[in-house]
Amino acid sequence: MRPLRSILSRIVVLHIIAVAVTTLTISFALTWLLDRAIDNIHDEAMRKQATSIAAHLRAGPDGKPILQLPPEIEAIYSQPYNRYVYAVVDAEGAVLFSSQANRGPVFADWDKSKLSSEEERRGDATISGVSLRKTLNDREYWIQTGENLSNRDALTDDITSGFFREVGWITVPILLVLLVIDIAIFRRALWPLKQASAIAQQIGPTRTDIRLPADDVPLEVKPLMTAVNRALDRLDEGFRVQREFAADAAHELRTPLTVVRTRLELVEDKELVAGLRKDLDGISHLVNQLLEFAEVETAELADDETADLRDICEDVAAFVAPIAIAQKKTVSLTGSELPVLVHGNAEMIRRAVLNLAKNAVEHTAENTIVEFDLATDGTISIKDAGPGIAADEKDAIFQRFWRRDRNRSGSTGLGLSIVRRIAEIHNATLRLDNAPTGGAIFSLAFRRT
Ligand SMILES: Nc1ncnc2c1ncn2[C@@H]1O[C@H](COP(=O)(O)OP(=O)(O)OP(=O)(O)O)[C@@H](O)[C@H]1O
Ligand SMILES: [Mg+2]
User: Fold this and answer.
1) What's the gap in Å between 422 CA and the centre of ligand 2?
2) Which residues of 235-261 are buried (b: 16+ CB within 10 A; e: fewer)?
3) Are residues 109 and 235 in the same domain?
């Protein structure tokens, strides 16, 4: 059998077992105590009956004992089924007085001490009582009183079985109330763990700063939370070192590249210089893209940052227009003429839009237009008239270092990963569609302030 995985179900099962055991134990213990109490009452009653009969036993004028019981005492021994019986016997066992029809003794064989408890079986019945010694004129007599327990048992059985039923029934609601209380307590105790799980969901390569709340959880779970938080600290440190390394490496490469570029001035062969400069431009572009990629990897958005999309679009369009014109292509900007304010970082959004714009200018055919459109809802779309993106490439183009043509110079395959990361930081939706007339439409939908 599979062990129960949930703490709550374990509690429910253990509770039911515990309450069942307790119910049985309490019922048996109480029944036993009740039996003992009834036995004590019976012994006491028998002793009292014997004493009161003894009080009415006296010597007659001839020296023989006389027993004259008042009617209220006689009544006890005239009950149906002979529940109570008495007899007065002498030392030889001769019965002088008896309440029984056969005039026999209550106990044929009895202890002749002053007072003793007696029991005798008669067929199915058990007679239980006492014998009490009384001396009259130097002769000893014993007053025997007894109760037929088969009659008593019927009564006490009724009491004990009723008691059993009642105790049993009372435990059912108690069990339910206890269960409900316990479940409520545990749900309350486990609630911080649920919260911690929700927080843990957010932890990822881009959010390594989040920690689990170790203070609000139950004491038993706190060591686990603390240990996980320490593990996250170590991972965070590892991530930081790696990210810094990528950024540092890209940064460090810039200086030697500038040195090489300066040295190129000294080379006389202009054709060679032109070739080498083109290669250097490619490497510089790669280094810049790597640096940007490393930067946006760790970038975060402050709560109160706002950016004007109109301003950004105008800026980027103006920046790429000369590049486009040099390639016999044009750039147009339509949509909102008024500022479109969104929650975001202007510099990061500019980088994203610039990457999309450069791609569009690069891929649009000669004598076509790259169309920028800014909707008032905060959506920027850039449409080109190039080959578009094939369905099977739609996911791949956003992956780092992916490019369709690896031999194309100045193509790193990092631009769209940077765009995707910036969209992620801004909670913006990045969409890619193909225009019906051919060409790709990339759009970024930001949240308006
Ligand atoms: N508008 C587009 N039309 C057609 N193909 C595109 C378009 N934009 C991107 N691609 C394809 O997706 C690839 C990845 O683009 P991405 O911007 O990530 O890198 P890149 O442009 O090659 O390099 P970088 O952006 O660093 O200059 C490109 O190499 C190109 O093959
Ligand atoms: Mg690009």
Assistant:
1) 14
2) ebeebeeebeebbeebeebeeeeeeee
3) no
Tell me the average pLDDT of the chain.
89
Tokens representing residue 248 in the block:
């540092």
CA-CA distances (angstroms) from residue 396 to 9, 256, 379, 410? 47, 33, 23, 19
Which pLDDT does position 21 carry in this prediction?
87
Q: What is the pLDDT of residues 169-218, one digit of tens each?
A: 777 788 788 888 988 888 888 888 899 999 999 988 777 889 999 888 88
Shared domain for 325 and 425, answered yes or no, is yes
- Cβ of 49 below 6 Å from ligand 1: no
Same domain for 120 and 34: yes
Structure tokens at 284: 């510089």
* Dist. CA 415 → ligand 1 center (Å): 7
207 bridge partner residues: 204
Residue 191 located in a structural domain? no
Is pLDDT above 80 for 159? no
Site to substitute for ligand 1 among 397, 401, 402, 422, most atoms within 8 A of C-beta: 397
CATH of the domain at 152: 3.30.450
For ligand 1, say whether the CB of 282 is within 6 Å of any of its atoms: no
Looking at the fold, whether 111 and 36 belong to one and the same domain comes out as: yes
Would you say residue 211 lies in a domain? Answer: no
CB atoms within 10 A of CB 324: 21
CA of 93 to the centre of ligand 1 (A): 125
Q: Is 73 helix (H, G, I), strand (E, B) or coil?
A: helix
Residue 359 maps to which CATH number? Answer: 3.30.565.10
Residue listed under structure tokens 């119910």: 23
Domain interval for residue 421: 306-445
289 Cβ inside 6 Å of ligand 1: yes
Three-state SS annotation for 310-322: HHHHHHHHHHHHH
If one counts the domains in the chain, the total is 3
Do the Cβ atoms of 320 and 331 come closer than 8 Å?
yes
- Residue nearest atom 15 in ligand 1 by C-alpha distance: 413
Paired strand residues for 98: 87
Q: Considering every ligand atom shown, identify the ligand nearest to the alpha carbon of residue 387 and give its number.
A: 1
Residue having the nearest C-alpha atom to atom 17 of ligand 1: 415
What is the per-residue pLDDT across 99-114, written as a single tens digit (0 to 9) for each?
988 888 999 999 989 9
